[in-house]
Amino acid sequence: MTVRDGNGLSLSPAISAGTQAAGRRLPQLRSRIMLGVVGLSAVLWLLLAFGMVVNARLATRAEVSASFAIAERFAEARIASIGPAGTLEAYRRLVAELSEMRHVSAALSHPLAGPDDDAATGDDDEEEAPRWFTALIENEPIDSLFTLTLDDGSTATLMLAANDADEIAEVWQDFSFILPVTILYGAILSLLSMLLVNLVFARLRRIEDALDRLREGALETRLDDADFAEFGRVTGGFNDLASHLCEEKRLNRNLARRLLDAHEAERRALANDLHDELGPHLFSLRAAVAMLKRKAARADGGDGLETPLHMLEDEVATLQSATRRLLAGLRPMSVGGVPLRDTVEGAVESFRRSSPDTQFACRTETADATFGEVVDLTVYRFVQESVLNALKHGKARHVDVSIALRPGNASCDAVLEATVANDGTMPVASNREGYGLIGIAERVEALGGFATAPGVAGGRTTCRIAIPVRAAGNGAAEGARP
Q1: Which intervals hold domain HAMP (predicted)?
Q2: 421: closest CA among 375, 452, 446?
Q3: CA 287 to chain centre
Q4: 434 pLDDT exceeds 70?
Q5: Percent helix, strand and coil across the chain, each to the nearest 5
């Protein structure tokens, strides 16, 4: 049994584990994945940069060492060819020849040597690398000294040294191009990964929203085709579950409807039995008492019987009235046989006679339609119980009853709404099974509708029921959801 508030939500829902978990601050998987992707990209870039530096350092060492060895052998050969009495000009030409070689520098030390003879290096057209990069790549210095004897008997010194500046400059050019490209590549991969993660989580959000709607009772909710094959199983399982719940709800509603029909049939049979069996006997008893009164009045000493006979007649009349009220409670004679409008207006008129100090207003928009005995009886009892609560518990002075048909949806032609509003305090519903607003809510739910619990708004206490119906006069729409 479900009694709903003004928004159609259950008044006493069980708190789900998911709702409890939502109250705790949990880390978001999406944020963790994105941080992981960015962190992994940064780590991979650092590893790539480290690998390139190590490889460049080893390659530079190998190439510079090879170039220096060639230059050293060349210098030894040229010095041998010049001989022990070479001229200063010959050694200057040797320095110039060595300066044409890559990755080496040569310098001639002699008192007569000019500044052009110092630190001659190979041509270097590359842009100079930053100091921090040079410190990462450069290796231990390699050099060699040659003592030369000139033709005038003086000596000179030829210093040959490895020079890796040009090689480091070449590596820096490659580095300054490759690393930005790898950064851009990593950023693109990270962006694509984030887009894919967003697609996955967008799908998860759609599933979550669908689960929320399913939990709220929208069993017609279905998931569209999955964007990824991996979600196909989840989508199919969700749709199968929703279809199964729809079928189970339909079966349960049909069962509840049959139980309600059986219950009403039993009440109707009991009312007929009381009317057919007890009614004639009460009538005969009252007729017999009247006959005794007449005979006692003619007989001698009848004055002593007159009072007891009057008392007996009053008790029989009271019993007849109680029986009629009991029959009306079990099954109002007009329900199902006359338009719902007349049944409701008759009930309001009965309250108007019994409570002359209260003002009643009754508005019905159902014309001459009847919606079947079960639906009409449910609306009748709702109006009866709501007005009775307003008078008995709420001490209302103004009561408004409204019956209206609202547009339906794909599952029903229309929705029959009954509303009772009053200026009294909040009524207390009876807890007796089959009576009170709780019992009426069960009947309404069995008919596929819902009952709004009494609530105060604008200084008025209002309660409402809504029952999906087919075309006017064809009863409730089984399995429909308003």
Answers
A1: 198-250
A2: 452
A3: 73
A4: no
A5: 55, 15, 25
Report pLDDT digits (tens) over 227-237.
677 778 888 88
Per-residue pLDDT tens digits for 399-432: 999 999 888 776 677 899 999 999 887 655 444 4
User: Please, how many CA atoms are within 13 Å of residue 167, restricted to the half-sphere of its CB?
Assistant: 25
How many angstroms separate the CA atoms of 194 and 196, rounded? Answer: 5
Above 50 in pLDDT, residue 15?
Answer: no
Domain with CATH 3.30.565.10 in the chain: 337-471
Phi, psi of 162 (to 5 degrees): -75, 140
Residue reference for tokens 């409730």: 476
Give the pairing type, strands 412-422 and 460-469. Answer: antiparallel
DSSP state of 10: B
Higher-pLDDT residue of 115, 246? 246
For 337-471, which CATH class? alpha beta
What does the angle CA 165 – CA 124 – CA 67 come to, to the nearest 5 degrees?
60
- By C-alpha distance, which of 253, 465, 256, 435 is closest to 371? 465
What's the CA gap between 326 and 322, in Å, rounded?
6
